[in-house]
Every structure is written in structure tokens, then in C-alpha cells.
Design brief:
Strand content: 15-25%
Order of helices and strands: HEEHEHEH
Number of strands: 4
Number of helices: 4
Strand order of the largest sheet: 1-2-3-4
Mean pLDDT: 85
Organism: Tetradesmus obliquus (Green alga)
Shape: elongated
Structural class: alpha+beta
Radius of gyration: 16 Å
Protein name: PPPDE domain-containing protein
Length: 132
């Protein structure tokens, strides 16, 4: 299912990269601590605004927003939409994620800088072993 409000954008972009399913899923990172779960994602600042759709449809960038939320649950359940990719062995993964977000370009572009790029980069960083 495409992101809400971006069904027409997804349909228009399918011809540009037919091998990939653009905008089919919104990706995010879940970081589970000992007694808390944190949610990280990246999406348009104004996802339902016509200007946002026009910018993204014309292959331009639109202002994006990085979100970090502490979830009410204490554990992540693996399901068809949630995959366990590994364990973070860093001393302070929340600080590492905050540093990553601070350096991340928040100009959202559907082909070059989208939620998948954010998820892949953050997940890779969190799963890379730290060097002593």
C-alpha cells in the first residue's frame, strides 16, 4: 500500500524504476532496549499538502521530518511487517541514532533520499560493531 496521499505519485513513478516498488511501503527502524522500544522514521513534513506532492512528482525535494518516538510497548514482536535484523552492541545506541539523525539530509527526494535510505543507513550504523 502506498503512503497515504501519495497513491498518484507512486503510480506516476512506477515507470521510472519498474524493478523497485517505489512508495509501496513506509520503512522505519525499531530499536528495542531492555524495557523500551524506540521508533525512527523519515517522511514529508506536510505529507498531504498539494505542494509536497507537486515537488515530489516533479523529481524535486520536499522538506522532510525525522521522527523519534518512544513506543508504549516494551517489546517488539516479529511479524510480516517487522523483521529482526540483529543486535546493536553499541554502548549508547540512542545517542548514535541521534547523531545520525542530526547529520541526515532532511530534504526528502523519492529517488535519492527517502524513508528507505534513512532506515538502511540507521540500521547499518546500529548493527556495525563498534571499534575499541
Amino acid at each position: 500500500m502506498p503512503l497515504v496521499g501519495f497513491e498518484k505519485v507512486a503510480a506516476a513513478l512506477k515507470h521510472m524504476q519498474p524493478a523497485k516498488q517505489l512508495l509501496e511501503l513506509h520503512t522505519y527502524t525499531l530499536l528495542q532496549g531492555p524495557d523500551q522500544v524506540w521508533y525512527f522514521d523519515f517522511l514529508p513534513l506536510r505529507p498531504t499538502h498539494p505542494t509536497t506532492a507537486a515537488l515530489l512528482l516533479s523529481a524535486s525535494a520536499a522538506p522532510g521530518e525525522l521522527r523519534v518516538r518512544k513506543l508504549e510497548t516494551r517489546a517488539v514482536r516479529v511479524s510480516s511487517s517487522v523483521r529482526l535484523l540483529g543486535s546493536c552492541l553499541h554502548d549508547d545506541p540512542l545517542q548514535l541514532a541521534a547523531d545520525y539523525n542530526r547529520a541526515f539530509n532532511t530534504q526528502l527526494h523519492l529517488l535519492h533520499n527517502n524513508c528507505s535510505h534513512h532506515t538502511e543507513g540507521l540500521t547499518c550504523l546500529l548493527l556495525t560493531p563498534q571499534h575499541s
